[in-house]
Amino acid sequence: MAGRPATVLARTEGVNITVPASVSLGSAFTGGVLNGSLGTVTVEDFRGPVNPNTWVTTVTATAFVTGAGGAGRTIANGQVSYWSGQAVRSTGGGTLVPGQPTSAQAVPLDAARVAFSKTAGNGNNTVSWAPTLRIAVPSGIVAGTYRGTITHSVA
What we know:
Oligomer: single chain
Radius of gyration: 16 Å
Number of strands: 15
């Protein structure tokens, strides 16, 4: 199984988010688990002295499918877990909070989840993190290249 999650961006005025355009997570046997990095996600907040200038980044996923999808060709988004990890780089002030600091806090992407947030502070700031996906590959699915979409948005 190989996946190439694409990422869609949504943003708030004065707050930008950038993500890798496409990522290949590698392969795994049916019944196994695949862990892979999504690359670096960065939020830049240029709203200046707005007090406070807080934001929340959320993440969602579609199912991963091969071919036309359907029975035996779909990995449900509940089988896809995400953890943000700690910030790998930050500038400016404020309180930056990872959604899932370690793999022990990984959350399934069957609903929108908080990926990272800024909970206090003002002034311009930037934070980057390198999230990881864990995909539980169901037994008995068809071998193939599975594709899904991971969406990050900031508000």
